[in-house]
Automatic annotation (TrEMBL):
Sequence similarity: Belongs to the glycosyl hydrolase 1 family.
Keywords: Glycosidase, Hydrolase, Signal
One Gene Ontology biological process: carbohydrate metabolic process
Protein name as catalogued: beta-glucosidase
PANTHER family in UniProt: GLYCOSYL HYDROLASE, LP05116P
GO molecular function terms attached to this record: beta-glucosidase activity
Cleaved signal peptide residues: 1-20
Listed EC numbers: 3.2.1.21
Keyword Hydrolase belongs to the record: yes
Catalytic residues in the record: E406 (nucleophile)
Length: 513
């Protein structure tokens, strides 16, 4: 009996030690200083916040088409028709940026609002005026605009011609980029060509989750990937050759990248394959030393394609000229990071149709049941995955300048959002760990400034530092507790797990203007 008790005590001590050890990694700094020079901001995207979907000459885009289709494919039949009404409320949006004390705000442009025909033959003055108003209002208060040219809302007309699967999209996108640089480049110094190529190509063309919901896994996604990368690179070089000297801005891309952790040692290869297919497909051609699609992706898709009876790989090849064009075509690497997945391989489990993108990867995903989940089922809280991702990007791509272009947590609403606060603190802490080890992170962006249209989930998943009241025609915005905490992180340039804001006081503007 005594002996059993002793073992129990020993066991208890071990559990406590293990627990303390795993807590300490992210709570070890009472107050942690944030290195000088890192910019802090928040982000949104045009379709998710603007509303005014058919106002002032804007034409239909692929998200208008999808959300208006029957039966409605979005939770609660929500649409972005009105969204946060930012088209009319940009002044309030900038006021919130001032309340938070942001260094920058990242937003995207609606292609079909600026070019209703999709092409440069007709520029919509009123649409341009909206973005001029927003940019000028931000600059009045020294908030830098960071502008994404494409955040998923392709003009429907271009989709009718195949969208990102049509190689002509390279010209369409470059022409649009030229107009945008000409219109706004005197004031905008940070450009992102395309937001989350993986979501554009896989979720839109490979799967059926996002517009245009082509559901052509293993073909459409790869065609899109190639065209998108060439379009990005052409726009990048156009800026460098024709605008850089007079405008002096910087241009990059914003890729989504989850961390894929092997389930066990023998799954290391499966996890690496997942990383290369899921984001290496888009980052390797730009940021690796040799460029081109990752070797493992090229080899796997080619081998499977021949086995399946194709005459050529389903993954289109870059010409040698295209490899050179795309290689190095970014001044920095933008990373949208939210979560991690456990990855493993088991040939006796056949879940995916063949051919398909996931059949090509030959990996299976899982979550650790101990991971906390956000309102979005895919969003598990795994701060160390962020650290591992940043470490890998640093080593694989020779330490490129990194902008964290999105990071955030969803709830079902409510102003007391302690789980969001915990998420931000732990993820920023993990980012600081990577910075301490040499990662060249230059900006951090919280997703999102306010609640907004969360794609197929409509307004059921809330990512905002500010809550938006969708029952109210005015779409009133109210600061959540996390807004106060983020503001204090930016103001003090430090991370203090014990800081408790007084949310009974209004959030105030402290920019002295
Ligand atoms: C997508 O296509 C597959 C066949 O490849 C089919 O089984 C599936 O139901 C389709 N999904 C949607 C949402 O259309
Ligand atoms: C693979 O999955 C099968 C079926 O679920 C299971 O019986 C087997 O143990 C798994 N193999 C490995 C190596 O995990």
């Amino acid at each position: 009996m005594m002996c059993l008790l002793k073992y129990w005590l020993l066991f208890l001590v071990l559990v406590l030690v293990a627990f303390a050890d795993c807590k300490s990694r992210y709570n070890r700094h009472e107050i942690r200083k944030i290195p000088d020079g890192i910019l802090f901001g928040t982000a949104t995207a045009s379709y998710q916040v603007e509303g005014a979907w058919d106002e002032d000459g804007k034409s239909e885009n692929i998200w208008d088409r999808l959300t208006h289709s029957k039966p409605c494919p979005v939770k609660n039949c929500d649409t972005g028709d009105i969204a946060d009404d930012s088209y009319h409320q940009y002044e309030r949006d900038v006021e919130m940026m001032r309340e938070l004390g942001l260094d920058f705000y990242r937003f995207s442009l609606s292609w079909s609002r600026i070019l209703p025909t999709s092409f440069p033959d007709k520029i919509n003055k009123k649409g341009v005026q909206y973005y001029n108003n927003l940019i000028d209002e931000m600059l009045k208060y020294n908030i830098q605009p960071m502008v994404t040219l494409y955040h998923w809302d392709l003009p429907q007309k271009l989709q009718d011609m195949g969208g990102w699967t049509n190689p002509h999209v390279v010209d369409w996108f470059t022409d649009y980029a030229r107009i945008v640089f000409e219109l706004f480049g005197d004031r905008v110094k940070y450009w992102f060509t395309i937001n989350e190529p993986r979501e554009v190509c896989y979720e839109g063309y490979g799967g059926a989750n996002f517009a245009p919901a082509y559901n052509l896994s293993g073909y459409g996604d790869y065609m899109c990937a190639k065209n998108l990368l060439v379009a990005h690179a052409k726009a990048y070089h156009m800026y460098k050759n024709e605008f850089s000297r007079t405008q002096g801005g910087t241009v990059g891309i914003a890729a989504s990248a989850s961390w894929f952790e092997p389930k066990s040692e023998k799954d290391a290869e499966a996890a690496e394959d997942a990383r290369q297919f899921e984001w290496g497909l888009y980052t390797n051609p730009i940021f690796s030393k040799n460029g081109d699609f990752p070797q493992v992706v090229k080899d796997r898709v080619a081998a499977k394609s021949f086995e399946q009876g194709f005459f050529r790989s389903r993954l289109p090849e870059f010409t040698p000229e295209e490899v050179e064009l795309v290689k190095g075509s970014s001044d920095f690497l933008g990373i949208n990071h939210y979560t991690s997945k456990i990855t493993y391989r088991n040939a006796s489990i056949t879940t995916f149709p063949s051919p398909s993108f996931y059949d090509d990867i030959e990996a299976l995903y899982d979550y650790d049941f101990t991971w906390e989940t956000a309102a979005s089922s895919w969003l598990k809280v795994v701060p160390w995955g962020f650290y591992k991702l940043l470490t890998k990007l640093r080593t694989d791509y020779d330490n490129p300048p990194i902008y964290i272009t999105e990071n955030g947590f969803s709830t079902r609403g409510g102003l007391e959002d302690d789980s969001r606060i915990a998420y931000y603190r732990q993820y920023i802490d993990a980012m600081l760990d990577a910075i301490d080890e040499g990662s060249d992170v230059r900006a951090y962006t919280a997703w999102s400034l306010m609640d907004n249209f969360e794609w197929r989930q409509g307004y059921t998943e809330r990512f905002g530092l500010y809550e938006v009241d969708y029952e109210d025609p005015k779409r009133t915005r109210t600061a959540r507790k996390s807004a106060y905490v983020y503001k204090e992180i930016i103001r003090s340039r430090q991370l203090d797990y014990h800081y408790e804001p007084d949310t009974t006081l209004p959030i105030t503007i402290d920019d002295g203007q």
